[in-house]
Amino acid sequence: MAEKPEDLPSGAGEVAKAYPEVWKAFSALGKACSEGGPLDGRTARLVKLALAAGALSEGAVHSHSRRAIGEGLSKEELKHVALLAIPTLGFPQAVKVLTWIEDITDPSPGRPEAPGD
């Protein structure tokens, strides 16, 4: 969470630049939450992706998918999160989440790459 404002997607980056003290506090909270329990980084990233999916936040799903890929998680692991959402969120919502994950994992000519969220 200690990203620099210029490394963030457009909306978050603009807020971080305009309100650096808020961003600093938000980053510190994220770090404290990540370090506050026994989950390893890989598990925590999958949980964060699942929470973003449950909130039906396309931007957060994109962000956590990007971070997960950057941290070495496989696209199959990320897609499994969407499949696990089917019984809880329902098939249509889980498919929506799967397509958001695939915006990051499987960009193709027919699928526009996700914009900065």
UniProtKB/TrEMBL annotation:
Carboxymuconolactone decarboxylase-like domain boundaries: 20-103
UniProt name for this protein: Carboxymuconolactone decarboxylase family protein
Alphabetical list of Pfam families matching this protein: CMD (PF02627)
Highest classification ranks of the organism: Bacteria, Pseudomonadati, Pseudomonadota, Alphaproteobacteria, Hyphomicrobiales
Domain of life of the organism encoding this protein: Bacteria
Gene3D superfamilies according to UniProt: AhpD-like
